């Protein structure tokens, strides 16, 4: 049989280009981008193994064992693609942060791919999935339909998560993923009935590239001046947390005299100071995420809250500002307020949460009098929880 490998070659080129874009423009610290990287690698390997096995079947220049091995590697890498897409959607939507039905979700995600791997691992003995006859001709066997069924199961899971958690995924991403599902099914149907036309990988590569185009670039969610996540990332992340009903806390740090110091020291120096502060906060926060709002406001999201961790972080932040911030040979007396925001108790929307992070608690007249009497003295205040909201 003659196999048309042109579309596979196009898929490989497109996947290589997608990998380049992923590393050059996307935030590889995000778990869903790490999964997308694995997905592209599996797509690339699928194309290479598909071409190799197809060429071997056409030219009959390899042993049956070599052809069967290449075909098994193709089926494995290709079966990993729908599995990784479901994991990608779960991470993208924030479903992984939900504590309910974790066991059922893990079962539905892992068991089908384990089943396929099991079938492929014994295929060399029992030929459940495919076989290569004495004339080096490829034949589908009954359990190949099970492999396609597993792919369909993952497609249905992906659709379920996209619909159920649509509010947590930006619309343009949802549309791209739905397009991937549609073209993936279309390519699978065409290749199932016309096995000589290797179109499935090409349709998947095209839609994967489309998803990359609508996924935010690293520059959109990362502050290059302070080297932490920015306000856009805070908005996106907390939109997910709020929409999945997660309860958590946010430690907000507000510089009331940010503009005054920026005018005094100049923007370049202030950017360096903010960068130093952001890096210090990130060190204090350890495994929690720090955000710089670029207006003298910072936020640390405590996803896994504990009273001990909260107190430790607040006390360490307070201690670094109480004696003033040392920049080069100058001690800068910042006026700092530290507040702990309970979500969703204090903020049921992202807009409200951002307003609380940026809130200046020193604007009250009686407090303002105390501060302006000593403009060159550091002032750090931990805001009472009753005043938040």
Which helices and strands appear, and what pairs or packs with what?
Elements: H1 6-25, H2 31-59, H3 64-93, H4 102-121, H5 123-126, E1 130-132, E2 138-140, H6 144-164, H7 171-193, H8 200-214, H9 218-221, E3 222-223, E4 228-230, H10 231-243, E5 248-255, H11 258-265, H12 267-285, E6 289-292, E7 297-302, H13 307-322, E8 325-327, E9 330-332, E10 335-343, H14 350-357, H15 365-372, E11 379-382
Helix pairs in contact: 1-2, 1-8, 2-3, 2-8, 3-4, 3-6, 4-6, 6-7, 7-8, 11-12
List keywords for this structure.
Alpha-Beta Plaits, alpha+beta, Rhopdopsin 7-helix transmembrane proteins, 7-stranded mixed sheet, 61% helix, 389 residues, two-stranded antiparallel sheet, 2 domains
């Amino acid at each position: 049989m003659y196999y048309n490998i042109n579309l596979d070659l196009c898929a490989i080129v497109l996947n290589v280009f997608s990998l380049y874009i992923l590393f050059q423009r996307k935030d590889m610290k995000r778990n869903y981008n790490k999964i997308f990287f694995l997905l592209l690698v599996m797509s690339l390997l699928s194309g290479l193994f598909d071409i190799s096995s197809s060429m071997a079947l056409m030219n009959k220049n390899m042993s049956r064992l070599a052809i069967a091995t290449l075909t098994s590697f193709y089926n494995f890498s290709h079966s990993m693609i729908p599995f990784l897409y479901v994991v990608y959607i779960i991470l993208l939507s924030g479903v992984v942060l939900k504590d309910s039905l974790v066991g059922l979700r893990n079962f539905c995600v892992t068991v089908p791919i384990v089943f396929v791997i099991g079938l492929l691992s014994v295929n060399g003995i029992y030929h459940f999935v495919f076989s290569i006859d004495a004339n080096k001709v490829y034949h589908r066997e009954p359990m190949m339909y099970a492999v396609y069924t597993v792919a369909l199961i993952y497609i249905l899971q992906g659709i379920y998560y996209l619909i159920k958690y649509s509010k947590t995924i930006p619309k343009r991403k949802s549309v791209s993923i739905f397009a991937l599902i549609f073209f993936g099914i279309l390519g699978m149907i065409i290749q199932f009935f016309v096995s000589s036309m290797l179109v499935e990988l090409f349709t998947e590569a095209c839609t994967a590239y489309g998803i990359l185009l609508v996924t935010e670039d690293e520059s959109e969610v990362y502050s290059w001046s302070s080297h932490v996540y920015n306000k856009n990332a805070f908005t996106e992340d907390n939109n997910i947390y709020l929409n999945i009903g997660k309860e958590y806390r946010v430690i907000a740090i507000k510089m009331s005299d940010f503009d005054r110091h920026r005018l005094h020291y100049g923007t370049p120096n202030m950017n360096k100071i903010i960068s130093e502060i952001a890096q210090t906060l990130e060190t204090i926060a350890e495994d929690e995420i720090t955000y710089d709002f670029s207006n003298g406001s910072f936020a640390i999201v405590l996803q896994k809250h504990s009273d001990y961790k909260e107190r430790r972080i607040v006390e360490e932040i307070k201690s670094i500002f109480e004696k003033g911030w040392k920049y080069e040979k100058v001690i800068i007396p910042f006026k700092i307020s530290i507040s702990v925001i309970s979500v969703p108790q204090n903020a049921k929307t992202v807009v409200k949460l951002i307003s609380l992070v940026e809130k200046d608690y020193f604007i009250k007249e009686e407090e303002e009098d105390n501060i302006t009497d000593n403009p060159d003295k550091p002032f750090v205040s931990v805001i009472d929880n009753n005043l938040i909201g």
